[in-house]
């Protein structure tokens, strides 16, 4: 097993690793498609929205606010600029509801975190809007398990290296756990750290990437409930 003998730090992603997130986006996308159904076929609306998000992520960053702006842009595009103000209002309302939605930790997360505490410092690394990520972290009730929390605008090898350097100069002693191969697994493997992929049933199109099957430092678990056993804490 490629886990380091004595990890210097164990890092976790937040959205869809510790709590539900993408499911709320999918529900809002379905609501958005219904609003624009008189102007565009539903299956085309999803494609147009993803295209807008792809264009805009470098301007607005990750998170709900950028998603709202991309929905508004898409609504303007598919209606040739004739989108009613009531539809814009519905989009804004949907976004506000997302920003206030209760945070629901995934099954077994609390128990898994409690089980591995003490092995190494546990830290949280999440990307997105600072205000919203801080709200979710506080609402989750999980913050007590973490030594530190970092909210970043992007998850790149350079960003990870800067965070991990606070704990060790040996990247082989780092473990990262997350649901996104693109953001949580590949950049960390590039540094020489161990990466544990815990898939979530839903995945945002912009996070799509193939798991590196056969990589000596890449592990895949079905659920975080399997994590304590991996660290010998079953």
UniProtKB/TrEMBL annotation:
<protein>
    <submittedName>
        <fullName>HAD family hydrolase</fullName>
    </submittedName>
</protein>
<dbReference type="InterPro" id="IPR023214">
    <property type="entry name" value="HAD_sf"/>
</dbReference>
<dbReference type="InterPro" id="IPR036412">
    <property type="entry name" value="HAD-like_sf"/>
</dbReference>
<keyword id="KW-0378">Hydrolase</keyword>
<dbReference type="GO" id="GO:0016787">
    <property type="term" value="F:hydrolase activity"/>
</dbReference>
<dbReference type="InterPro" id="IPR051540">
    <property type="entry name" value="S-2-haloacid_dehalogenase"/>
</dbReference>
<dbReference type="Pfam" id="PF00702">
    <property type="entry name" value="Hydrolase"/>
</dbReference>
<dbReference type="InterPro" id="IPR023198">
    <property type="entry name" value="PGP-like_dom2"/>
</dbReference>
